[in-house]
Amino acid sequence: MTPRIPFTISVFGLFLAIGLLFSQAQAAPDLEGAKKVVQKIADTGISEVIGADVSYDEKIERFRKLFDTWFDMPAVSRFVLGRFWRTAPEEEQKRFIEQFRELNIYTWAQRFNEYNGQKLVVTTATADGDGGAFVESQIEREAAKPMVVLWRLRLRGSEWKVVDLSIEGVSMAITFRSEYAAKLSEPGASVASLNALIAAQSRQLSSQTRR
């Protein structure tokens, strides 16, 4: 004889099952949304920055806005500094976020003049935990195979933000983290001295790009 399950238990089990299904649905990242964000970044960068008929200073300002809108620079900065972030004064933490952003902006600005109609095509997206995604894209090039760019994004509230780029398998965040860890391990080094070095690098890149 099959044992009879009390009504209260069966109802509780039903609601528990519904709750689990709902939580799983909520946890599943919106991969299509992540792909759309990457495509929007690429399209905006080409139409409003790289390919726009505006001055160099205006391009930099537009690129800065693009960074502020779609990249989680505070999170990237914390990862890049690693253990050195925790011991840095708050003022130097804020300065690092600003200087690191500017360095990235002027580094990419060097490539503005190299643009010759190349297109970025978003190909696939896979989940990265509950609130993250990896979006793969390819930059089409003449007389060469496409360059693979992997975007790592995290959900911040309801919005996707970029936290890393890997170009042909090389992570930008990990590369910077390794480089800065080596510099900060030198005798007498500090986040303040690293900030000064990054600021000098940005000024040099800005000067070179303007030529």
Task: Explain the overall architecture.
- The longest helix has 21 residues.
- A hairpin with a 4-residue loop joins strand 1 and strand 2.
- With 211 residues, the chain is an alpha+beta fold.
- It has one domain: Nuclear Transport Factor 2, Chain: A (Roll).
- The N terminus is likely disordered.
- Helices cover 58% and strands 20% of the residues.
- It contains eight helices and five strands, in the order H-H-H-H-H-H-E-E-E-E-E-H-H.
Number of domains: 1
CATH class: Alpha Beta
| Spatial arrangement of strands, main beta sheet | 1-2-3-4-5
CATH architecture, please?
Roll
Structural class: alpha+beta
What general outline do the C-alpha atoms trace? globular
Total number of beta strands: 5
Radius of gyration: 22 Å
Q: Estimate the strand proportion.
A: 15-25%
Low-confidence parts: 1-26
- State the end-to-end distance: 89 Å
**Largest β-sheet summary:** 5 strands, antiparallel
Protein name: Toluene tolerance protein
Signal peptide: 1-27
Keywords: Signal
Pfam families: MlaC
List the SSEs and their pairings.
Blueprint: H1 7-27, H2 31-50, H3 56-70, H4 73-81, H5 83-87, H6 90-109, E1 120-127, E2 132-141, E3 144-156, E4 159-167, E5 170-171, H7 172-184, H8 191-210
Antiparallel strand pairs: 1-2, 2-3, 3-4, 4-5
Helix pairs in contact: 2-3, 3-6, 4-6, 4-7, 6-8
